TrEMBL record:
Residues 424-467 have a biased composition (Low complexity). Residues 41-366 form the AMP-dependent synthetase/ligase domain. This is AMP-binding enzyme family protein. It comes from Mycobacterium intracellulare 1956. Residues 402-415 have a biased composition (Polar residues).
Length: 467
């Protein structure tokens, strides 16, 4: 089978000065921890704590480890190992969460695919990563996912790829129960922190799906930074209706809970009334999503005459009108903007301790590990940047300060993913200038050691003084 097997040497990135790398280590921005060992670590520290809640199903961290080890053993039995790519396109079901973690536990590279991608985008993803295994639902929201994968894998010459189907049956596919019900269990794989662990695709200004590759070092640096900025711990509970296949879902429902022992409540679709009920029932303390999520959640809570227990709602992907944040604040939902992209998830971050005016009018404090610079194209150097080329529809104006303020930004899609962003692991993408002429912008963003990520467009951002 002609499939992809990735290592750190497969993704070219410029070198980083030893003193900068030492600085990142000294301040705790990066470590040698790997994502493959995260479930073991979480089970050891918080074994009896709830890890995943979805519908009527709940797993503790110890129970999660057991099914993850069995699923990883199954993957190993069908030939999936370190460096192999596993594609999964699923709703936010607990089984998907388990298999996503099992991919990492086996040392393989997780390639989550947005659930709204159809044949056109799926074909591009499959042909680029040439997976060793795929996971999907039989059908969801009227689309026959498993059938589509069969057709596309056959067309790509990957007819013998291992397949797992969730909540359904199909000839040639292994049901989830068979993957986790056998007696074999696998220890976490021994992989390097700089080896790729995650490939995320995003649609941009061209018709092609573009990919960003994260390593354990970059993904866990981002995870620690967010968890620390928001003050999250084992006492917290996340609510996630944004897809697990989006960086928002990966961080807030998978890696952050594993890092701090929090619980993740999953929803396979966004329904504001259901979200209010779930948040109240499970005493959810933090969530993240697009502006429309915040607006609808506020309206639903107001209609239900309840004050939600949320301590944080992170909002990004589009402009967040002050009026929306004022109404959410009145309803007891402290919201804060974040600004980032798939390959660099949080360029800025705030929490509820920041004054409301800063949360309502700015994108927040520039995250640790980056120095502010001069007005112009935004160039960033971070411990958390993925190894990829990127283009993002934003422009910055910075002073020698550390709060970023947007004065314009593209709108967002309902699932929370920002449009107008292209990511490519092979070639730079193109963008359009305000006058409509095409300009080219290239970025070499590296997991760790990090490099530089550049953005350009008609949108402008301004820095202000951090409190």
């Amino acid at each position: 089978m002609n499939r992809t097997r990735l290592t750190a040497t497969d993704i070219v990135a410029p070198p980083v000065a030893p003193d900068r790398l030492a600085e990142y280590r000294r301040f705790g921005y990066i470590s040698d921890q790997t994502i493959s060992a995260s479930v073991v670590r979480a089970a050891r520290q918080w074994g009896s704590r709830p890890a995943i809640i979805e519908g009527g199903h709940q797993l503790t961290y110890q129970e999660l480890l057991e099914v993850v080890e069995r699923a990883a053993a199954w993957l190993g039995g069908v030939g999936v190992g370190p460096g192999d790519v596993v594609c999964w396109q699923t709703p936010n079901w607990w089984e998907a969460h388990v298999l996503g973690l099992a991919v990492w536990h086996a040392g393989a590279v997780s390639c989550p695919i947005a659930p709204f991608y159809r044949e056109h985008e799926l074909r591009q993803v499959i042909e680029q990563v040439r997976p060793a295994a795929v996971v999907t639902a039989e059908t969801f929201r009227g689309f026959a996912h498993a059938e589509a994968f069969d057709d596309l894998l056959g067309g790509a010459g990957l007819a013998d790829v291992a397949r797992v189907v969730l909540r359904g049956t199909r000839s040639g596919w292994s049901p989830f129960d068979a993957v986790v019900s056998h007696g074999s269990r696998q220890q976490s794989a021994d992989v390097a922190a700089d080896d790729p662990c995650l490939i995320l695709f995003t649609s941009g200004t061209t018709s092609g799906a573009k990919a960003a590759a994260h390593s354990s070092r970059s993904l866990l640096a981002e995870t620690r930074q967010l968890a620390g900025a928001w003050g999250l711990s084992w006492e917290d509970v996340a609510y996630m209706a944004a897809p697990l296949q989006h960086i928002t879902g990966v961080l807030n429902a998978m890696t952050i809970p594993l890092q701090v022992g929090a619980s993740a409540v999953l929803a396979d679709r966004w329904e504001a009334d259901v979200a209010v009920a779930d948040i109240m029932r499970h005493r959810v303390t933090y969530s993240a999503g697009a502006t429309v999520f915040l607006q609808e959640l506020t309206d639903a809570a107001r209609a239900a005459r309840v004050h939600l227990p949320l301590r944080m709602f992170a909002c990004g992907g589009a402009a967040v009108p002050r009026a929306v944040m004022e109404r959410s604040e009145e309803q007891g939902i402290p919201a804060a903007r974040v600004y980032g992209m798939t390959e660099l998830p949080t360029v800025t971050v705030m929490n509820r301790a920041h004054p409301f005016d800063l949360r309502a009018e700015t994108d927040g404090a520039i995250a640790p590990g980056c120095r502010s610079g001069s007005s112009g194209r935004m160039a960033s150097r971070w411990p958390r940047a993925a190894r990829a080329n990127c283009w993002c529809a934003d422009r910055s104006r910075c002073s020698a300060t550390s709060i970023l303020t947007p004065t314009g930004r593209p709108s967002t899609t309902r699932d929370g993913s920002p449009p107008g962003m292209s990511v490519s692991s092979t070639a730079p993408a193109s963008s359009r200038s305000p006058g409509g002429s095409r300009t080219s912008s290239t970025a070499a963003a590296r997991s760790s050691p990090p490099a530089t990520s550049k953005t350009c467009s008609s949108s402008t951002r301004r820095c202000a003084t951090q409190p």
